[in-house]
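Interim report, section 4.2 (structural modelling).
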Amino acid sequence: MISFSGVEKRYSATDAALDGVSFDIFPGEFVFLVGHSGSGKSTAMKLLIKELEPTAGEIRVAGRDLAKIPRPRVPYYRRNLGVIFQDYKLLPNRTVYENVAYALQVTGGGRREIRDKVPDILRLTGLSTKLHNYPDQLSGGEQQRVAIARAFVNHPPLLIADEPTGNLDPETSIGIMQLLYRINQTGTTVLVATHDVAMVDKMRRRVIELADGRKIRDEQSAAYAAAESTREFAVRMRSAQG
Amino acid sequence: MKPVFFLREALRALKRNAIPSFAAMATVLVTVLVLGVFIPVVQATTGAANEVRGKVIADVYLKTDAKRADIERVDRLLKSEPMISKVEFISKDQAYKAERERNPKAYELLGSNPLPDTFRITPGNPDDIGKIRDALAPSAPGGGRTVVDPAIDEVRNREEDTNKILAVTNVVKITMALLAGLLGIASMLLIANTIRLSLYARRREVEVMKLVGATDWFIRWPFVLEGVIVGLFGGVVAILLLAVVKIAVVDPLAADFALIAAPETIDFPLLIGLLLVAAVSVSALGSGLSLRKFLRV
Ligand SMILES: Nc1ncnc2c1ncn2[C@@H]1O[C@H](COP(=O)(O)OP(=O)(O)OP(=O)(O)O)[C@@H](O)[C@H]1O
Ligand SMILES: [Mg+2]
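Predicted structure of the assembly:
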């Protein structure tokens, strides 16, 4: 699904934010990208959505070489990805409902489609009571969930989340992870960047670790219960916490 | 393209960004108002200057013994000169009658008619008057002038007056053209800048739209429509004000003063049409183009 080979990104000539990183992620996987602050996680995400271009190496998504996508086609490529940004990136002048609807409108989705899909995804993310609030009237966790709803409303084959539990309390974090897990169970490939190591350990999923822009670890957790239901997952997460 | 969706988006943006939108509208309004007053003033001034320049003429005096054949030959010669636009013949009898009316006593004393037949010529371009004179009466090497036709006695223009008229009216016309150009440029920069400021405040929003998969034109159309609405509103209000001023102040005065109703002033409907088209297109193009920078995500 995603393949990095020898990817390097330098913001300046002296030091590299990513330095020769290679990995492959397969369809349906749930993968964590971890590392200390400044290790290059967000940079990898930005390369994936073609917000930035790598200075060397090749990135392929669903078999396509990102460097070969011409500028006018980039929006169409981005519609196949659901992206949850570290800073949410909600549209400040739109309500929760309109923010989520916008992701459908850009793809040419009509009113019927919006009326069908938006309430569903907002129910799934637990935002049904906040439809008409503007982003500045929401808590951090609620904004995060709007970002998830927007990223997933198109049911993209690949969901990438940068720090989706960044500033949230453990209980809310579990709620968000449970949501991502549920999305993953529908067949969507999920890549989550985070520095919340405790959370990652509890999830027991594949982990790719970066340090100073280099890959230092890539391993499958041993006790990996692939068929775990969302409820079982949540129970295990909470018990591990105590 | 979905016009209804884009129009709704434009209206929403105007509502949610009321203050910058209002500032842009006010800018368009003031600019159109100033242009609407200035354009007729420039035209009236230029028209007046041209009218004065139309008075630049030269007289071609024939010898007093010129025969009918001489007169016809000189007439053909003058009419074949491309720099001359109008040739008027004043016979010695006509000249005598006119002069005697102006100054009966002096002409009483003279008895006979001392005046020659004359051609009064008007140049196509007043600035050519000197060249025409040189063509008809080239300067002779020893000073003085010869003439191109033996029947011509002398070619005369009132040199002092002519030069003054040409110099002054040229300065007036150039100044007006310069002012009009500067004002036009200033208006466009002012409108473009106001729009750029209001877009700058929304560049994050544009970036986010790009990142969730919107194409450039999907983002741009609402901004262009917003520009059209701003230009239309500012333009229409300015034109209403201009119309009020015209009906209440200029029209009553025009009955009394010829200058205000100068013949070369643009018609009001054409003027407002031009201003409205300019306001809408500058504002729409301004929004569409200023956006380009922020779409590079
Ligand atoms: N736009 C930029 N210009 C210059 N340097 C940058 C830029 N963005 C990131 N960097 C640098 O690149 C390195 C990696 O940054 P990145 O944002 O990828 O880290 P991160 O792993 O996401 O960190 P965090 O966990 O704090 O979000 C850092 O050293 C950072 O200072
Ligand atoms: Mg980051």
